[in-house]
Amino acid sequence: MNEQDARQAVQTAISQVAPDVDFDGLDEGSRLRQDLELDSLDFLRLVESINEATGVDIPERDYTAVATVKGMIDYLAARG
């Protein structure tokens, strides 16, 4: 998966979990839980949604690597 595909997968998953997020002004350094205000259940649904869409499993030990939008994109691009 290239970076653009990963970015699209992340945006799609975020829009499913947090439909109020505005991607036009979104900084990719935004923290998913703090800046996008995803609670723990939203974050788990995001991880599950990405797994279903891309086949990339994100184990709990890697959650710190995917704590930001950019981190999630990079993670998927490297493993997808």
How many beta-strand segments? Answer: 0
Shape: globular
Please summarize the sheet with the most strands.
none
* Structural class category: mainly alpha
Low-confidence stretches: none
Mean pLDDT: 94
Number of helices: 3
Strand content: under 5%
Over the alpha carbons, how many angstroms does the gyration radius reach? 11 Å
Distance between the termini: 5 Å
- Written as H for each helix and E for each strand, in order along the chain, the element string is HHH
- Percentage of residues assigned to helices: 40-55%
What can you see in these coordinates?
The structure is a single chain. Helix content is 51%, strand content 0%. The chain has helices spanning 3-17, 40-54, 69-79. It is globular. It starts with a helix and ends with a helix.
SSE blueprint and pairings:
Elements: H1 3-17, H2 40-54, H3 69-79
Helix pairs in contact: 1-2, 1-3
Quick tags:
mainly alpha; 80 residues
Short note summarizing the structure:
The chain has helices at 3-17, 40-54, 69-79. It is an all-alpha fold.
